Amino acid sequence: MADLFRKQAQNYAAARPTYPPELFRYIASKCPSGRLAWDVGTGSGQAAASLATLFDSVVATDASPEQLSYAPAHLLPNVRFVLTPPAIPLADVHRLIASPGAVDLVTVAQALHWFDLPAFYALARAVLRRPGGVLAAWCYLPPVVDGGEVDEIYRRVYESLAPYWAPERKMVEEEYAAVEFPFEAVEAEKGTGPVRGFAAEREMAAGDFLEYVRSGSAYQTARENGVELLRPEVVEELVRAWGMDGKEVQKVRFPISLRIGRVGEDGADHPVF
């Protein structure tokens, strides 16, 4: 997937939705303090930028130099962007990211399904504060535009993407509900999730929405296999349904599914599914 992400880094940074401030306020409210957060798989730094408003320091890591090149590092003085290998030894985590027990929050935005989960969870537990350090991972679901014709056209396009998704994408389709999540509940009555009710939003004209579709890994994979899923007649139909020849600006909503939990006193696993 690294080669694919390199090819689409610019489109990804430009087309993806911005996560809502209330999501980060909710997550931060569960943390033991606001000193240090680690954003893993940060991409172009969307989540890191929001975390920077709530935490004294943020370390944002990614395995793609192309993705990191679009991060606004110069605008975020309390965020340290770090290029890491896809598999990073614990010693390097402590050297490059944080000492044991120093991190209040680990976040993963729209990337957990690409990780080696047992290895990642072990690294997260090694740096999270005990007790109470929080891990929060979320994904966003297919967008909702108008509740009508545009959504129906996109549904057909989305279904046509299915053969080109990587197998890991199934975790997103299941809203991370079936993901092993070996952490304690931050709220005993709710368990560790999924927590729903949050949504990313973005104002888009039809051209912006089409760029969002083109930024997806399945679309890129289809193109690499010589298949164009946004055929001219499909684009024309969507633009016509959008309104004002596609120039009307509509609020596009991306529902979010969040898994959130914390480490206990001993940092041991407490599997919850």
TrEMBL record:
<dbReference type="GO" id="GO:0008757">
    <property type="term" value="F:S-adenosylmethionine-dependent methyltransferase activity"/>
</dbReference>
<dbReference type="InterPro" id="IPR013216">
    <property type="entry name" value="Methyltransf_11"/>
</dbReference>
<feature type="domain" description="Methyltransferase type 11">
    <location>
        <begin position="39"/>
        <end position="136"/>
    </location>
</feature>
<dbReference type="Pfam" id="PF08241">
    <property type="entry name" value="Methyltransf_11"/>
</dbReference>
<protein>
    <recommendedName>
        <fullName>Methyltransferase type 11 domain-containing protein</fullName>
    </recommendedName>
</protein>
<dbReference type="InterPro" id="IPR029063">
    <property type="entry name" value="SAM-dependent_MTases_sf"/>
</dbReference>
